[in-house]
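Key result, reporting period 2: structure in, sequence out.
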């Protein structure tokens, strides 16, 4: 695609990077077929190619974002299915990230949107505040019918997953390997996941310990949630201290930085790009990105611990967008589940997002609900007794309305190798036997 940026514009490194991305697009439109918003809405401006044109026009003309551009940029899930499909290697992720920052800087949203976005940005990345918000949500639930739809969506999502305010097993710092130590890894303890379902980190730690790894739990939010809201300053403020902590652990000797929420993993693997223009942090951020592994990647490298329990329900594996499109990890989780003795069933239209996408299901509840219904119908057709996935956002999104438990892949692998059954699965089997 031809571009018309001036030399002065290209002096801005973000504009220069976007210009390189735009030049790769050859307008072929292959990406439209796999874009969830185009599939649902059928509007070219809600396709990757349409958004690329809108972003190009906005950036080339150095224009503030208009309400129309914001509408179509906001509807993008950042699912990155378009990147998997694109034959020209267009790095849509970095382009839409730049567009979101431009929108945030140049467009004044209506008051209710500003309040909601600020609330999300100042609550979700902070476990203490989020725990308090979850408790408040429980009090507000009886009045849900009279609340705005975005608030209702929030209440719905937390109702199905919140495990109360108990501190999780990851509040301690080092979890020693079982048997002879073969590796030392850091686990990103995270924010939202640890409040909604602390069992996931506990299962991950047991699994890695059993695989012979010392696990250092490192607290902190990766910044992905606010990054997707276009709040560049906030995402850098959250990520920078985490990078320093992780880099400190790297210097003490680490085989991997393990992330068990694939949205956060995609973000951490992109720190090198995110901080490329930060002289103080660029090298550390790149080193952290290079060592970051999804928990399933780390287990594939370490080797799955011996399987002590076979059987259990057939598993429908839901490949989160951040896993399959963001990190290009599709085969590894399925293989581990099969190695652990599970029958793995495929979900039709597996490339399509479930509608979770960070805070998308709160900010765009109608589209998110349509994508969830479509995904749940595909899941039901598998006849599986449980769904495994690697991202807490998908777990929360699909748990609303699912008739089978939705659990983390690490929980099933932990169960098969000596851990307790995931409590969602246990509750379902207790109910069935009553
Ligand atoms: S990221 Fe997903 S929703 Fe956004 S344009 Fe690409 S395919 Fe469509
Ligand atoms: S598939 Fe790639 S090159 Fe083709 S229109 Fe989409 S982004 Fe552009």
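The corresponding designed sequence is given below.
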């Amino acid at each position: 695609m031809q571009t018309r940026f001036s030399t002065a514009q290209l002096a801005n490194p973000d504009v220069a990077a976007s210009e390189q991305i735009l030049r790769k697009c050859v307008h072929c439109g292959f990406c439209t077929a796999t874009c969830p918003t185009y599939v649902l809405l059928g509007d070219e401006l809600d396709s990757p190619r349409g958004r690329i044109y809108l972003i190009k026009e906005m950036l080339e003309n150095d224009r503030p974002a208009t309400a129309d551009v914001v509408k179509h940029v906001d509807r993008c899930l950042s699912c990155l299915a378009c990147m998997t499909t694109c034959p020209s290697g267009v790095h849509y992720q970095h382009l839409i990230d730049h567009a979101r920052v431009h929108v945030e800087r140049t467009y004044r949203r209506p008051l209710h949107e500003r309040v909601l976005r600020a609330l999300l940005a100042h609550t979700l990345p902070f476990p203490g505040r989020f725990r308090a918000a979850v408790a408040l949500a429980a009090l507000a639930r009886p009045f849900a019918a009279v609340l705005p739809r975005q608030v209702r969506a929030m209440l719905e999502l937390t109702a199905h997953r919140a495990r109360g305010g108990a501190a999780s097993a990851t509040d301690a710092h080092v979890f020693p390997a079982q048997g002879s130590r073969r590796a030392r890894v850091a686990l990103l303890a995270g924010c939202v996941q640890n409040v909604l379902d602390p069992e996931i980190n506990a299962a991950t730690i047991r699994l890695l310990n059993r695989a012979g790894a010392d696990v250092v739990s490192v607290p902190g939010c990766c910044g992905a949630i606010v990054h997707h809201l276009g709040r560049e300053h906030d995402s850098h403020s959250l990520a920078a201290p985490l990078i320093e902590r992780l880099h400190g652990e790297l210097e003490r000797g680490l085989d991997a930085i393990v992330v068990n929420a694939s949205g956060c993993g995609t973000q951490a693997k992109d720190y090198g790009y995110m901080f490329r223009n930060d002289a103080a942090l660029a090298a550390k951020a790149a080193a952290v990105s290079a060592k970051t592994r999804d928990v399933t990647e780390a287990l594939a490298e370490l080797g799955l611990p011996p399987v002590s329990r076979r059987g259990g329900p057939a598993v429908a594996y839901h490949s989160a967008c951040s896993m399959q499109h963001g990190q290009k990890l599709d085969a590894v989780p399925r293989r581990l589940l099969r190695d652990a003795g599970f029958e793995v069933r495929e979900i039709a239209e597996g490339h399509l997002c479930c509608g979770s996408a960070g805070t998308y299901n709160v900010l765009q509840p109608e589209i998110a609900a349509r994508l969830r219904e479509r995904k749940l119908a595909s899941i039901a057709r598998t006849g599986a007794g449980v769904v495994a996935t690697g991202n807490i956002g998908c777990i929360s999104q699909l748990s609303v309305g699912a008739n089978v438990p939705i659990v983390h892949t690490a929980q099933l692998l932990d169960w098969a190798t000596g851990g307790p059954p995931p409590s969602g699965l246990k509750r379902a089997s207790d109910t069935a036997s009553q």
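The longest helix spans residues 232-253. Residues 164-170 have pLDDT under 50 and may be disordered. This case is discussed further under Risks and Mitigation.
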